[in-house]
Amino acid sequence: xxxxxxxxxxVGFLATQAYATPTKIRKTKAPKANLEQQLAKYxxxxxxxRPTQRAGVVVIQFRVNSDSELCQLEVFSQNEQINNxxxxxxxxxxxxxxxxxxxxxxxxxxxxxPE
Length: 115
Known about the structure:
Low-confidence stretches: none
Helix content: 25-40%
Signal peptide: 1-20
Protein name: TonB C-terminal domain-containing protein
Keywords: Signal
Structural class: alpha+beta
Mean pLDDT: 79
Organism: Spirosoma aureum
């Protein structure tokens, strides 16, 4: 009888824990699409791609400082002209809602379409 009562109590306890909601409030991050949209306002189609009229994808990494400005910007493409153009266009630009954690590294893929 004691084993049955103990087993029933244990099963009841485990069942309640399985459906319990966590009390810790999760900090939600801003969606990536918002980040990409903000970056798109600062970037124009690279001159290096104009003669070929090709689409292209470039990956960039950066941090956002406490003033919400882009810093430690790196551009990953094989074309040095594109890298320099994007560095000029983005260095020091501000992003709304991303200046809280300066240690966070953001990685974004930028897609270019011919005009």
